[in-house]
Amino acid sequence: MIIKSAEFITSAVKQSQYPPEVLPEIAFAGRSNVGKSSLINTLINRKRLVKTSSTPGRTQLINFFDINNNLTFVDLPGYGYAKVPAAVRKKWGPMIETYLSSRKTLKGVVIILDIRRQPREEEQNLIHWLAHYSIASILVLTKTDKLSKTKVARQQDAIVRALAMEKENALLFSAKTRRGKDAVWNAILSLTAPK
Ligand code: GTP
Ligand code: MG
């Protein structure tokens, strides 16, 4: 994928702030600090277009990015971080759910999991919820650079078993080494290609 341009469009907390529904859109969802923003930056070859941080829960808005004027990426706020104030945490569910259920141009959701962690209730719920609404999803297992080759394979097996899915559908990725970048792009493009 050749990136000619990648630009921040806007941040939103509510529907009236979303940009117009024009281009096909891909959203990125996952636990806070899992590496959503880093994955987007790696895909678009930018170091810091999307803010990353060592403080979990940094992204608390829905951030829209224009890619090559023909695709929109959406960085969703991370869930599951206990230290975020309760008032903020309470808004996350409805904020994400409103976006996912209303967005007509949404072509699919990239669900990002840390390869070192087993999926928990939040991931199971998100996956079931997307399936229920017939929203396509791509599963990316990130931070693979933090484990040995053997452990990566073992964890990939354990995660797909927990989620009752096929191994080929859990893509191995690392923002540090850029492993899996092409595979993730291919999966995204197959969802956004005109049908
Ligand atoms: P929130 O926006 O806070 O929910 O976090 P996020 O999911 O966007 O994560 P972010 O991309 O900000 O990354 C969190 C931390 O993990 C940062 O310190 C990143 O450098 C690190 N990180 C992300 N991806 C990888 C990876 O593949 N390998 C390694 N080693 N570190 C990573
Ligand atoms: Mg982020």
Folded structure, characterized:
The chain is α/β, with parallel strands linked by helices. It has one domain: 3-Layer(aba) Sandwich (Rossmann fold). Helix content is 32%, strand content 22%. It contains 5 helices and 7 strands, in the order ββαββαβαβαβα. A 7-stranded mixed β-sheet has the order 1-3-4-2-5-6-7, sandwiched between helices. Helix 4 links the parallel strand 6 (137-142) and strand 7 (170-172). It is globular. The two termini are 19 Å apart. The mean pLDDT is 89. Magnesium ion is lined by residues 36-37, 58-59, 75.
Number of helices: 5
Instruction: Report the portion of residues in β strands.
Output: 15-25%
CATH class: Alpha Beta
Gyration radius, to the nearest Å?
Answer: 16 Å
Tell me, rounded to a whole number, the average pLDDT.
Answer: 89
**Which percent range fits the helix content?**
25-40%
* Terminal CA distance: 19 Å
CATH superfamily: P-loop containing nucleotide triphosphate hydrolases
Give the total of beta strands. 7
The outline comes out as: globular
Any idea of the CATH topology?
Rossmann fold
CATH architecture: 3-Layer(aba) Sandwich
Spatial order of the strands in the main sheet?
1-3-4-2-5-6-7
